[in-house]
Amino acid sequence: MLLAAAALASAQSAPAAWPGKPVRIVVGFSAGGPTDVVARAFADHAARQLGQPVIVDNKPGANTILAAEAVASAPADGYTLLLGATNHTMIPALYASRVKFDAVKSFAPVCTLAVSPTVLAVGPAMPVKTLAAFLQQVKAEPGKRTYATPGSGSSGHFASAHFTRLTGTSMNHIPYKGAAQAVTDLIGGQVDSSFATLGSVLPQVQSGKLTALAVAAPQRSPLLPNVPTFEEAGVKGYSADAWYGLLAPAGTPPAVLAALERVSQDFTRAPATVEKLRGMGMEAQGHCGAPFAAQLQREVRENTQLARDLDLKAE
């Protein structure tokens, strides 16, 4: 009887096998942008690996704060996850006193899934072909030329502000609720330029709808071999890239995090993933667990300092 009672107690205290129902991945941008694309590619892969539907839930707005808040306040059971991007580590620099979560402590980092360099792209409203010509026009009309970003405080906002500081230029910031609408308006001529992730503008650059002037990376992108780096084009010391990664609520059981890490690593190593992401201007990357956590902490410190140096404020 005692053995039977002990076995029953053990069974009652043991966690149910995960996942036993659909998993939701929350994205802080609208559908169609690079974060959403990575999320949907991962969701398809994870659903096959886990044997449960994995649903992408877009919650755009407030520079991904709404999405991050939804996940930070969700039960830590592995059924609500965040597909975050670089701007996640920029939230404390601009919104620390206005958010209900800690960008680091409220989450359990799982893995990065992809990275993408930043490119300076222009549309029909500013038909220049080189970075030098772009700078000439911007300097001729201080504060009048515009640049679009996926949102105030986004990685594109920080990259743009850093560029204007380095080059001594002044431009007008036009924030959107995601990369997709920013790119649409850039193509339509409503805005002049965008410091965008390569993944968000590659198809439009390849089709000729947009012109890429420079890539913010140490080397040229093999997808745009004729586009120089900023270093080559004369802006020294300028670099920027974006990561896309999976985070769970803090307190998520270690066994669930380990399962998510296995699925994430399998995703980044799969030849189909590598090919798909490269076709969108991204590289698969799987920094998991402690290294990802250390990266988040470092970026929060660096971006907070950068916001102070550049006097960046939430708009």
From TrEMBL:
<feature type="signal peptide">
    <location>
        <begin position="1"/>
        <end position="16"/>
    </location>
</feature>
<comment type="similarity">
    <text>Belongs to the UPF0065 (bug) family.</text>
</comment>
<dbReference type="Pfam" id="PF03401">
    <property type="entry name" value="TctC"/>
</dbReference>
<dbReference type="InterPro" id="IPR005064">
    <property type="entry name" value="BUG"/>
</dbReference>
<keyword id="KW-0732">Signal</keyword>
<dbReference type="InterPro" id="IPR042100">
    <property type="entry name" value="Bug_dom1"/>
</dbReference>
<protein>
    <submittedName>
        <fullName>MFS transporter</fullName>
    </submittedName>
</protein>
